[in-house]
Amino acid sequence: xxxxxxxxxxxxxxxxxxxxxxxxxxxxxxxxxxxxxxxxxxxxxxxxxxxxxxxxxxxxxxxxxxxxxxxxxxxxxxxxxxxxxxxxxxxxxxxxxxxxxxxxxxxxxxxxxxxxxxxxxxxxx
Length: 125
Description:
Blueprint: H1 7-30, H2 36-51, E1 55-58, E2 61-64, H3 70-82, H4 102-111, H5 115-124
Antiparallel strand pairs: 1-2
């Protein structure tokens, strides 16, 4: 059994969903909330009020007393609608702290040895 779908209506829903995140973000920006990180505490308080969940202050800031609740899922859902991860800039890869060549470092250390230390080193090999 095959179903026929009104593609125009389906695409209209997709377009509405695609455009909605931008309008939500613009509305939050008008309120002075420029990022997902700034919106998180407000979304957390909203979800706690709506779902009657309790919040606590932890080491890393506010969190829900019980994890994986309807309130926490609602908070994450609202934030992902307002700030979709697809639109978020990708984090830059961390720069390596040690860019020196290990072999060059050993050669430099060897050349800094005195003649006696070099002979002792070669005997040990």
